[in-house]
Write a structure and sequence with these properties.
Blueprint: H1 8-18, E1 27-31, E2 35-39, H2 47-53, H3 60-74, H4 79-89, H5 97-107
Antiparallel strand pairs: 1-2
């Protein structure tokens, strides 16, 4: 019987939990149809929230919660709350604004399109 390793995201989550907290400086990032945000670059400790946000085995509500946690942990203080307020009050905000922001944070300064 051959050994079958667990899925890679489990190992990534463990590595992320061992990483120091994200304390990098904030960078301006332009998000299409949302505007400019100020966010830190993700470190390995962001992997658990990102992998949970994409995990089809958890509920939709849980995935949205993990996505919001990722965004909140990387935006400049007060900016997450301002984004939520804009999503509720501005008619021209896209319905997927939070997803757009999370992708912009995850891919900023990289060659990754998503």
């Amino acid at each position: 019987m051959a050994f079958e390793p667990p899925p890679g995201y489990i190992d990534c989550e463990n590595d992320g939990e061992q990483a120091p907290p994200n304390t990098g400086r904030f960078h301006e990032i332009e998000v299409t149809d949302v505007g400019v945000i100020h966010a830190r670059r993700p470190l390995p400790n962001a992997i658990p929230a990102l992998s949970s946000a994409a995990n089809p085995k958890v509920s939709d509500r849980s995935r949205v919660g993990h996505l919001n946690l990722f965004v909140q942990n990387h935006l400049k203080p007060g900016e997450y709350e301002a984004l939520l307020a804009r999503m509720m009050t501005e008619d021209d905000m896209p319905p997927d604004a939070m997803l757009r922001v999370s992708r912009a944070i995850a891919t900023a300064g990289t060659a990754r399109p998503t």
